[in-house]
Design the sequence.
């Protein structure tokens, strides 16, 4: 579960931070505050690749922060991993119904 990484709190924000998540945050120059804000105030979120996990994405003017979390058996939030990119890489997903409407309008109302 948790590990110690210099300057990082494995229980910051009342969440459980895995050693992997703490290492990745440090390597990727992400603060725990930025990561926690991505979870609390996401731009968007989606199911993670692992069953029961969730991916939170927070985009601001300069940076996109992505965080993978999962709830443990005690219903505590465990932060599994995180990374950051330029906010220019953010591409919002368009819901299927909206894609269909756009296709229909483009096809029949040129």
Sequence:
């Amino acid at each position: 579960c948790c590990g110690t990484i210099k300057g990082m709190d494995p229980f910051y924000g009342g969440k459980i931070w895995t050693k992997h998540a703490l290492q990745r945050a440090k390597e990727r120059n992400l603060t725990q505050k930025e990561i926690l804000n991505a979870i609390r105030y996401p731009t968007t979120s989606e199911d993670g690749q692992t069953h029961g996990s969730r991916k939170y994405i927070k985009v601001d003017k300069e940076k996109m922060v992505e965080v993978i979390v999962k709830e443990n058996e005690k219903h505590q939030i465990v932060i599994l991993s995180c990374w950051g990119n330029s906010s220019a890489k953010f591409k919002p997903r368009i819901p299927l119904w909206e894609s269909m409407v756009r296709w229909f309008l483009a096809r029949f109302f040129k």
In short: Helices lie at 19-27, 32-40, 96-108. The longest helix spans residues 96-108. The mean pLDDT is 87. Strands lie at 16-17, 44-47, 53-59, 63-71, 77-86.
